[in-house]
Structures are given as structure tokens and as C-alpha cells.
Amino acid sequence: MNVSATPASATAKEKVVLAYSGGLDTSVCIKWLQNEMDLDVIAMLGNVGQEHDGLEKVAAKAKQLGCVAVEVVDMTDEFANTYLTCAIAANAMYENKYPLLSALSRPLISKHLVEVAHKYGATCVAHGCTGKGNDQVRFETSIIALDPELKVIAPVREWDLGMRPDEIAYAKKHGVPVAQSIEKPYSIDDNLWGRAIEAGVLEDPWAEPPADIWTMTVDPLDASDAPTYVEIGFTAGVPTSLNGQDMPLAELVDALNKIAGANGFGRIDMIENRYVGLKSRECYEVPAGLALIQAHKALEDLCLERDVLHHKLALEQIWADQVYNGRWFSPLKEALDAFMANTQQVLTGSVKLKFYKGGCVVVGRSSAASLYDAGLATYDNDDSFDQKAAKGFIDIQGLSIKTWATKRTELAQAPQDVQLDVLDGTGEAACADAYGQTFAQAVNC
Length: 445
Ligand code: ARG
Hints:
Structural class: alpha/beta
CATH architecture of the largest domain: 3-Layer(aba) Sandwich
Bound molecules: arginine
Oligomer: single chain
Number of domains: 3
Strand content: 15-25%
């Protein structure tokens, strides 16, 4: 849905395109950009599958706040078909825990900000991020990559409305509606892939997350007493069917979010290293995302040749770091995507998942491209593995170790004056002693 609500203004003011959410911060941003920067504001409202009370309502609010144009862009399918597809191919998991949900939406929103800026001849783009998060880095690095000429304004980072009461006072003075109800004391970012929840009581790493932070997942204690089985079909690495029914990825993720969430699966509570250098406590709900990555890995275990699989594991970490650090549009990330895409060509098959009380396990996998060879794997009579050949294999692959071990024994048995400190024939203990002595000497001098 691309709804241009108001034609571009004919004034001579410079234009800025703001990534608008409808919340208090970005609503105050509109007024601040108009009043303090003397700019015409175009609001861009991106739908990436987040919860909202109606995009039309949010668009109307932007118009009411004096935006010269409002663009509502439905990015859900693009988010699923490009961003989530690449993330699944790379089994994207920052610090082995976080499936990058906010980090995946920022480059997409940036791409559309740049497109809207070009459409309206705007010279600036703006976002509502603070100065201590990763999201500012992701927006601005993406914009640098897509149009280095565009100026970026980050009002929340620049204005002196530091504390909430100042911001509310500014809002009231400039006619920005402020909700009567006290806003939830959390900072939340959500999209089709899941929800990120931070701040409030969560800032204490010892405090258990309160029950009210979770909205996509039930408490595992309240989940059904019977397991739920789900079959995910993959085509060239992309999840394309759920329980035998073909569906577009966005729909599949949505449906699986509900199944996994109802079984209490998908919660993460972690301490995370932000790119800007601080540790933060983050809670996430990523029910479908975690399940799909688990299923995808299980299919890769079956279909990828060993060396490809092992090297891919290392490259996946680099991919996740690049994307976490805002480098979606970077030559390294592009090259890694090419590697990932190459590996996915054989990834067609099915994976059976079992959800039960907060858990999700892979209980079956199958593929026409499976490299699992029952004849090689079996211990039964029809074994096709040449066990006698293993002897030569072990001798040759162990040859360098044998040479080293023989030399070690020889030196340990030699007269005292040719012995080396570390080589007394007892291996590690001797090593540790030698290091201990060296360390002691170093410290003493
Ligand atoms: N820490 C996560 C990240 O950097 C989530 C940030 C989400 N933002 C928020 N306002 N909760 O990707």
C-alpha cells in the first residue's frame, strides 16, 4: 500500500523525510524539524509487520501535525522475501543468541527513506533513534551506502529535551497529542520476525523479566500439555510450506509465530554487546524465527558437504556481525550473501519440529539432496563402509603427531644437559611448570 496522502508542498523550504512510527518521540520529531530546523517534513510510515492501531490512523496523525506529505509503505513481503530469506540462509544469530530482528528491518526502512527522499527531492532524512543504540548506526550507515549526498538528522540525539517531562512539555506546547495512559516503561521494537523489549526494570540484569513484557508467547507453564508437531518444507533454503500447505514466507512466519508462541517457545533473555560499546540487557520474542533457523540448520546438516558446512558456520558469525553493526549494504556482506546463496541450492526438503512447553526440537528431516548414506552409516550387515581402510587413513593422518610424540620421548630420555625445560615427558604438566617459571621470572624483573 503506497498512499500519498498530501501532495508535496510548493514552498521553497528544504524537505526532510522522517521515519515515522506514530509514537511520542517521532511525533515530537516532526514539530522539532519544522520549528527548529525550518524544514518541510514528509512522514514515511513503513509496515514491517509490527503491531499498530491502524496505519491510516497514524498517517492521519502525521498530516494533522503538519507534514507536507505522508507515505505509507507496506514492506512486509520485501522484508520476508529478501531480508528474512537472507537471514535464514545465514542462520543469522548475533552472539549465538539474537536473531537480529531490529537489525534486519533498519536497512530496509533506510532503503525506502532514500527512495521517498528521491521521489520528493528531499535533501535530508531523519530518524527518531537515540545516541546510544545500534539503530542510529544502522540507519545512517545504510543511508551512506545508498546515497552519500543525503544529510541525516537525528533529532532525539541532537535536541536538548533530555528528560521525558521536557519532551512532554514541548509536545503539549506544539499540539502533539500525548496519550493519557502512562506508557509502558519499556522500549519496544517489533516486526514480523519478533519483538525486542528493553529498559525499565529489565535494566537490572538480576531482575526476572516481568510477565507483562511477553505478548507473542505464553508462559511455558501455561502451554498445552500435548506437544504440537509442525512440518516445514524448504525450497532452495527458503521455507515455503507449513504442514504441507504452500504459502508466502510472510504468511508462513506469521502462522508459525502463533503455533510456536502458543507453546511458549521463542523467548530470549540476554546480555548483549552493543556496537556502540556498552552491554545491555535485552529480552526478545522470536518464536517463528528461532524455530525456522533450527529447522534450516537441521536440513543443512543433512544436505551440505562437511567442509562447506564447517566453513559456513564461521562465515555465519561474520554475516551476523556485519548486519548487527549496520553493514547490510557493504561489499563484505554482499560477498557473504553470494556464498550463502550458493550453499542453499541443494536445500530442498522437509523438517519436522516438535513444540512442547517452551521447547522446540527437530525430530525428523528428509531431502532428495540428502548426503546421509544409510549404507555408510549402518552397523547392520549391509554396511558399505570399508572399515579395514580406516587403518591406513588413521596412520597417515596421524603421521605428524607420531613424529612429534617420538621426538618428545627421545628428548625426555636424553642426558639432563640436552633436555628442554618443557619436555620432561609428562606433557601438559611440564608445560604448565615451564610457563609458571617463565611467568614468575617475568613478574620478578
Ligand atoms: N538491541 C537490539 C538491537 O540492537 C534491539 C534494539 C531494539 N530497539 C528498541 N527500541 N527496543 O538490534
